[in-house]
Write a structure and sequence with these properties.
alpha+beta, E3-bd_dom_sf, 3 domains, Dihydrolipoamide Transferase, five-stranded mixed β-sheet, six-stranded mixed β-sheet, 19 strands, transferase, lipoyl, about 35% helix, 11 helices, Chloramphenicol Acetyltransferase, about 425 residues, Dihydrolipoamide acetyltransferase component of pyruvate dehydrogenase complex, acyltransferase
Length: about 425
């Protein structure tokens, strides 16, 4: 009997929530067939079978949050010796004295089934057999919208059946019960990604000496420059321009693209600018990583940023997409209504920059009051690693690059 365990897949993972079992005791499975689906704070993944065999005892409950190293279930592999054979061998040799145990890495999701884990979750939560849903995506892939459409059709059928079978008196009784039913306290489960985010934020806040600096930047020239580029056929989001400006500023002040190694008592300066992009999803905040920004053009940053954001919103990020960040940017401007914040650093990084909404307001230019497009910045840094003066210098350099696109162009290689 082989034990299948939850393995640490990196990035500080310590536990995961059991979302769904694909098998039950007694089922026959093949090698690499998914056994269970779990949710960490950053991604949804499947644990595969180590080989062909028969599912034995399931050791955890659906919805349970389990620690790394926990045995999820047992499998009797095909061709493995039976219990009687094992007992016979044990009597002959004292070397075999314990059960064989294997720990398996959680691989990234594959296209084995033509539906993403989140799509399957929507189907499960609503009692839909996903095998009955017709996929409209590439290669027949089942999309979230396909499940919703199927649910809409089934709901209509169920409503007609209920209407035919329910008398007017029964409807009145149901309505009466609804009116007199006592109200109850609404609760939201504090587990899964929400719980993991809470732990990570608490750890960061209690470990790092947070200090937040506020700055405002006139992005009028940047907005006009972007409009000119669009007229010439070069379309990109203004956020891509801001990300490139941050990378150039980090080149001048590498102390903010660093990690404090307390055990070795050194500050490790990173060679590459792997910028984390905070994305607000239905399941909570997640930070995919845009790699090697220092060597990418603004249009390349725009394209890759769009792909990562879409993957985050559809819960399709892999471990490679969310690991290795060196600095994080939280662009809350598109959400509207934010002019300032005190962001919590994505441990173990040293800095996090929040970009707030752009708003036209009066400003003084050459001793004259004019209307400009202004945006506020909130820059949080680790005060153990850098001082306030260095943070101000970094912010000043960043503002210079954001306010004068031509200056940024001079810095590109």
């Amino acid at each position: 009997m082989v034990e299948v365990k939850l393995h640490d897949i990196g990035e500080g993972m310590t536990e995961a929530e059991v979302l769904h079992f694909f098998v039950k005791p007694g089922d026959t499975v093949t090698a690499d067939e998914p056994l269970v689906e779990v949710q960490t704070d950053k991604m949804t993944a499947e644990i595969p079978s180590p080989g062909a065999g028969t599912v034995g005892k399931i050791m955890v409950e659906l919805g349970e949050t389990i620690k790394v190293g926990t045995t999820v279930l047992e499998i009797e592999l095909a061709g493995a010796p039976s219990k009687d054979e094992k007992d016979h061998k044990i009597e002959k040799s004292e070397q075999v004295n314990k059960q064989e145990t294997h720990t398996f890495h959680i691989p990234k999701r594959s296209d084995r089934v033509l539906a993403a884990p989140y799509t399957r979750k929507i189907a499960r939560d609503n009692g839909v057999d996903i095998d009955l849903v017709e996929g409209t995506g590439p290669g027949g892939r089942i999309l979230d919208e396909d499940v919703m459409s199927y649910m809409s059709g089934e709901t209509s059928k169920q409503a007609l059946a209920v209407a035919d079978a329910t008398t007017e008196k029964e409807l009145e009784e149901v309505q009466s019960e609804e009116v007199t039913a006592p109200s109850s306290l609404q609760t939201i489960p504090f587990k899964g990604r929400r719980k993991q985010i809470a732990k990570k934020m608490t750890h960061s806040l209690h470990t790092i000496a947070h200090c937040t600096q506020f700055e405002e930047v006139d992005v009028t020239n940047a907005m006009e420059w972007r409009s000119q580029c669009k007229e010439q056929g070069e379309s990109f989001s203004i956020a891509a321009f801001y990300i490139k400006a941050v990378s150039v500023a980090l080149k001048d002040y590498p102390i903010f693209n660093a990690t404090l190694n307390e055990q070795e008592e050194v500050i490790e300066l990173k060679d590459t600018h792997n910028i984390g992009l905070a994305v607000d999803t239905e399941d909570g905040l997640i930070v995919p990583v845009l790699r090697n920004v220092e060597s990418k053009s603004i249009t390349e940053i725009h394209r890759e940023m769009k792909v990562l954001t879409e993957k985050a919103l559809s819960n399709q990020l892999t471990m490679a997409d969310i690991s290795g960040g060196t600095f994080t940017i939280s662009n809350v401007g598109p959400l509207k209504g934010s002019t300032g914040a005190t962001p919590i650093i994505n441990h173990p990084e040293t800095g996090l920059l929040a970009l707030h909404k752009t708003k036209k307001r009066p400003a003084v230019v050459n001793d004259e009051i004019v209307i400009r497009s202004m945006m506020n910045l909130s820059f949080t840094f680790d005060h153990r690693v850098a001082d306030g003066g260095t943070a101000v210098a970094f912010s000043n350099r960043l503002v210079q690059l954001m306010e004068h696109p031509n200056t940024l162009m001079l810095e590109l290689v």
